[in-house]
């Protein structure tokens, strides 16, 4: 959808009478007053009893510990430009990185910014009293193709157009990605052209009809191969100047998954898990899945020291090098998914009648909702939500990302916070982070993956990496049992006894990778 810039006729040439304007002003003022009266009310300010889907006892949130759902102000308090702070309380604060690493990170950050600099949408100003209606952005062309620049129209009533005797129209491709031209007319229109099919086009005419023809027949031909790059084209009509954007973009092929003729869950979803030295747990998980979804495909990534064969229909068991790590296993598992969606579960989870995958699929298939990952909650063996799972949004955390200075940015994770609920699914909330029981859109999550540096533990780290890349919601209407299974060898790696430096190494990696001055978990 293009951004349109139109002549402001209603302002300069209006013949409307004063009473109409008075009435219009009163309407606008009433709208503004109403907006101020409701703007201070957000999901954070609403009383719990006002939420239609919340029971009386649904107040606390369990993540790693229970915290109260907080009231969040409408607008964050702005920090001074170029500074950020994760707070003075040392509890949960991480901010240690060596000076030599900071120097290396600065160079890598400069390279990252250069590579991604053109992903930001540029600011395009629509000029006041423009003699030309134009599309400031939204014009897209394939490499080496030619398009007519649509959306341009001359305002014949504009003072510049009416008072001028001669018209000089000049268009210039700032980055020289394309050539501009006007096709030959049939002789009805009189004008002189220089620079046709070049990066700078100039047209001279004395006739308004000819000027209008030229503006309605401007063409752009891409001359440089780029898969996604913006060209700024400056247009000058006599003393009036504005710019518009032409985006040179290579078309992308769709990646479609066949949902099967009957839209069965087993045709749409693959269950994936990562296991390590817990065969009794993973066999129990498989048995519970088969009770409710007998034919669904299960993918298991296994980095146990002495692998045991896991047998069964539609079970794919992948053996990895010993103790390769949780993230590497999750990447391996998702790389083998062939269905539109996948369900991630830990190997000590158990399906119950409350683990209704159809409810996840219902949200993905809803045409009014665009989402990439849906988190669930935990329940008991009868399929009911746990008695202590009394949260509005179980496992939800929000990330506050504040831009800093050369020392890096700041990230604060606040658990117990979520964003607004979904109108069509009030049991679901937008969030930045959910539990590790979730269904994902395969094509979306596979693109971002799981950072293999996080070998022993990974949860918050994944969702930080996915922030702004995946649309995440959490829903309370699907649950699963978490039956913790431990043994000596598993605990030895899980608790980092074999490598006490693992945690600090992960922290330093996060600070470096995400260009963070500090991050705080609360």
List the keywords.
alpha+beta, 522 residues
List the helices and strands and how they pair.
Elements: E1 3-5, H1 9-12, H2 18-39, E2 60-62, E3 66-68, E4 93-94, H3 99-116, E5 132-137, E6 139-141, E7 146-148, E8 153-154, H4 159-163, E9 167-173, E10 178-181, E11 192-194, E12 200-205, H5 208-216, E13 219-222, E14 228-237, E15 240-249, H6 265-268, E16 269-275, H7 279-292, E17 297-302, E18 315-319, H8 326-335, E19 341-344, E20 349-350, H9 357-365, E21 373-378, E22 397-405, E23 408-415, E24 428-430, E25 438-441, H10 442-448, H11 460-466, E26 472-482, H12 488-494, H13 502-513, E27 516-521
Parallel strand pairs: 6-15, 16-17, 16-19, 17-18, 21-26, 23-27
Antiparallel strand pairs: 1-5, 2-3, 4-27, 5-8, 7-13, 9-12, 9-14, 10-13, 11-12, 14-15, 19-25, 20-26, 21-25, 22-23, 24-26
């Amino acid at each position: 959808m293009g951004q349109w810039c139109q002549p402001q006729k209603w302002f300069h040439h209006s013949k409307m009478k004063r009473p109409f304007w008075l009435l219009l002003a009163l309407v606008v003022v009433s709208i503004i007053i109403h907006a101020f009266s409701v703007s201070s009310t957000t999901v954070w300010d609403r009383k719990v009893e006002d939420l239609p889907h919340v029971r009386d006892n649904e107040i606390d949130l369990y993540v790693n510990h229970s915290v109260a759902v907080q009231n969040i102000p409408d607008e964050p308090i702005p920090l001074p430009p170029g500074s950020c702070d994760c707070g003075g309380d040392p509890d949960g604060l991480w901010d240690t990185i060596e000076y030599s690493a900071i120097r290396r990170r600065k160079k890598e950050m400069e390279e990252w910014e250069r590579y991604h600099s053109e992903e930001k949408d540029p600011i395009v100003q629509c000029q006041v009293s423009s003699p030309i209606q134009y599309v400031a952005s939204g014009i897209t062309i394939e490499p080496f193709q030619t398009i007519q620049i649509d959306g341009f129209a001359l305002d014949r009533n504009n003072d510049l157009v009416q008072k001028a005797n001669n018209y000089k129209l000049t268009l210039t491709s700032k980055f020289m990605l394309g050539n501009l031209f006007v096709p030959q007319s049939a002789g009805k229109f009189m004008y002189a052209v220089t620079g046709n099919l070049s990066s700078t086009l100039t047209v001279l005419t004395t006739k308004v009809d000819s000027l209008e023809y030229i503006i309605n027949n401007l063409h752009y031909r891409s001359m440089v191969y780029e898969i996604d790059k913006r060209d700024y084209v400056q247009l000058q009509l006599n003393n009036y100047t504005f710019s518009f954007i032409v985006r040179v973009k290579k078309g992308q092929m769709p990646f479609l998954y066949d949902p099967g003729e009957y839209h069965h869950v087993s045709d749409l979803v693959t269950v994936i898990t990562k296991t390590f030295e817990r065969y009794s747990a993973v066999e129990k998980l498989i048995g519970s899945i088969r009770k409710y979804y007998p034919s669904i495909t299960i993918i298991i990534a296994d980095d146990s020291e002495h692998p045991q064969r896991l047998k069964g229909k539609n079970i794919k068991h992948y053996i990895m090098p010993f103790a390769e790590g949780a993230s590497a296993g999750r990447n391996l598992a998702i790389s083998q998914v062939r269905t539109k969606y996948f369900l991630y579960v830990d190997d000590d989870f158990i399906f119950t009648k409350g683990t209704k995958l159809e409810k996840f699929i219902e949200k993905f298939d809803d045409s009014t909702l665009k989402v990439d990952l849906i988190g669930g909650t935990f329940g008991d063996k009868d399929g009911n939500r746990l008695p202590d799972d009394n949260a509005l949004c179980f496992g939800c955390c929000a990330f506050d990302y504040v831009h800093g200075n050369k020392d890096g940015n700041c990230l604060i994770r606040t658990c117990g916070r979520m964003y607004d609920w979904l109108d069509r699914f009030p049991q679901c909330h937008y969030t930045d982070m959910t539990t590790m029981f979730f269904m994902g859109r395969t094509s979306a999550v596979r693109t971002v993956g799981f950072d293999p540096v996080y070998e022993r533990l990974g949860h918050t780290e994944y969702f930080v990496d996915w922030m702004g890349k995946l649309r995440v919601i959490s829903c309370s209407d699907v649950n699963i049992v978490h039956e913790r299974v431990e043994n000596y060898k598993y605990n030895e790696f899980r608790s980092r006894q074999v490598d006490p430096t693992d945690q600090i190494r992960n922290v330093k990696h996060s600070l470096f990778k995400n260009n963070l001055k500090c991050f705080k978990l609360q």
